[in-house]
Amino acid sequence: MVSSSHHPEPSPELTLREIPGTYGLPFFGPIKDRYDYFYNQGKDEFFKTRIQKYNSTVFRTNMPPGPFISSNPRVVAVLDSKSFTILFDNSKVEKKNILDGTYMPKLNFFGGYRVCAFLDTDESNHHALKSFFLTFISNSHKKFIPYMRTGLTELFENLENAISDNGSADFNIHSDNMAFDFVFRLVTGTHPTETQLKSKGPATVNTWLALHLAPLGTSGLKFIPSFVDDIIHTVRLPFFVIKSGYKKLYNAVYNSASSLLDEAEKSGIAREEACHNLVFLAAFNAFGGMKVLFPSLIKWISTGGVTLHRRLAEEIRSVVKTEGDVTFSALEKMPLTKSAVYEALRIEPPVPFQYATAREDIIINSHDSAFKIKKGETIFGYQPFATKDPKVFENPDEFVADRFVGEGEKLLKYVYWSNARETDNPSADNKQCPAKDLVVLCCRLMLVELFLRYDTFTVEAGQVALGASVKITSLTKAT
Question: Residues 448, 331: contact at Cβ < 8 Å?
């Protein structure tokens, strides 16, 4: 088995310490932790107070949803950049049915299949499906820039029109529409409006995501009492609400991606299984990731104000003028733009949680101690703490756009958003995001198109259930 990990051997100078923390009383302990996590403290404070209490970035706790959905909410939390990397070591941890942590959604949401994201690297069909994804992405690379630029042109035109009509524009809505069109067209070669989905693709996927991810979040509505909101953590929301919508999404992919599905069958994957996996790849991995990432990117770039915007605009316009167009080569010659994207991925990773199960008794290291995790125990990582580790990053809570320029590139190995180090590459034998490089490319293209068109912009940022909400309040045209 190939491992993408740089996980160190136990350091002899570190003292082996009992893992601190408690799970509390059965049933009541998980519920107390759930209320602290969602309502009494919030995610960040939940982890901060326990780090302080135990004087350790490794400790035992319960993770939502707990009763009555999750039969075993007990985890060992790893919250620093060093201990976190055990989650990438496929020789020591298993990833079977643990994408969503201590909770496994009903398979109805995925056509009855355990799609690739829920498979461990040791399972035979993982290699076949991941290889299929990687081949598809590699063969599609010539479409990335033209498809994305077409979508971004429409996005910014729509934002301008909304600002002109209403004084501001909801970036999230327009970004979702652009992202879905881009992903669907990349997978099928067809615009979704030419299928039975018409313009309802984003709304369909948003409902599908909300229903099966509900136990892991909150409604985000402050006027709903916590004991009412908590119902979504105790009762699974039914698939039948989105059954017809999912069927339309599946049929749209099945009927439009025939050549891609032909290739899947040639590689030994059943056509129906391949299609449900493509739906998950497109709807969850790609669209779901972009839904969180693009507003976050714009929010953080906005915090740099006119000074950062001027630097980005100068770099981008200079390179494009010299190269004659926006190309892969041109994008590689924009170090500040690249760094700003990596910094957004570091400070607010789009998928903040990673889980795994220990294959055997293992020793992990934090910066200060060593800990023994027993075979079968669930390991949980909250990535924003690992990628804002003050022992690795200076001013870790600040957005520093040029953090990864020059010598700063050495820090990229501590950026973990893709379920591995940024310096690693996805393969059929690991769990790293197969579209890792495409995601980074799309973010760079968004900044390039933004600053080719505008000198600066302003936003009002808030929070929604899945990440940041961004309202564009002004776009100052390029001079």
Answer: yes
Question: And the tokens for 83?
Answer: 């201990």
Give the residue among 138, 96, 121 at the shortest CA–CA distance from 2. Answer: 121
Report the alpha-carbon distance of residue 273 to residue 194 in Å, rounded: 24
* Dist CA 135 CA 123 (whole Å): 19
Q: What is the pLDDT of residues 15-55, one digit of tens each?
A: 999 999 999 999 999 999 999 999 999 999 999 999 999 99
Give the Cα separation of 467 and 461 in Å (integer): 10
Amino acid at 424: D
Residues forming a β-bridge with 76: 60, 379
Of the CA atoms within 13 Å of residue 150, those in its CB half-sphere come to: 12
Strands 378-382 and 74-78: parallel
Q: What's the CA gap between 416 and 396, in Å, rounded? A: 14
Q: What is the number of other CB atoms lying within 10 angstroms of the CB of residue 401? A: 22
Distance (Å) of CA 80 to CA 25, 37, 55, 367: 27, 19, 12, 8
pTM attached to this predicted model? 0.95
11 close to 367: Cβ distance less than 8 angstroms? no
The string of pLDDT tens digits covering residues 312-364 is 999 999 999 999 999 999 999 999 999 999 999 999 999 999 999 999 999 99
pLDDT at 10 over 70: no
How far apart are the C-alpha atoms of 290 and 283, rounded to whole Å? 10
Mean pLDDT of 390-418: 97
